[in-house]
Amino acid sequence: MGQNPKRLLKRAEFLAVRRGEKRRGRFFLVEVLDRGDGGVPRVGYTVTKKVGNAVVRNRVRRRLKEAVRVHAADDMVPGNDYVIVGRDDALRAPFGQLKAELSRRFRGTR
Fold it and tell me: Residue span of the signal peptide, if any?
């Protein structure tokens, strides 16, 4: 089992990851930036107001965080930063499908 990723917390960290690779999925967009230091992967979550009100956005964020925690963290590459931009489909997707999609995007496969 891999180590748990750290969190991206500062706006500057989120903006830096935007310069990296974008991996589009049905339930979310994953932005990836290789820091080049081989350290613990870091992850940040964001859900835009387009998805819904605060309750809906928080539910989407919680589902994504749990999917990363229980399953997809093992597929994160050390030294990478990830920003997961949630979409409203992430709320209705079966949890197993959400986990599998996250793992695929972290590995960089379609």
Answer: none
Closest CA to 48 of 102, 17, 87, 84: 87
Residues 81-104: tens digit of each pLDDT: 999 999 999 999 999 999 999 989
The listed CATH number (2.60.60.30, 3.30.70.1150, 3.30.230.10, 2.30.30.40) that belongs to domain 6-107: 3.30.230.10
Torsion 60-28-94-68 (CA) sign: negative
Q: Could you tell me which residues come within 8 angstroms of residue 50 by beta carbon, excluding any fewer than 6 positions away?
A: none
Q: What is the pTM of this model?
A: 0.90
Q: Residues near 40 by Cβ (< 8 Å), separated by ≥ 6?
A: 3, 5, 6, 78
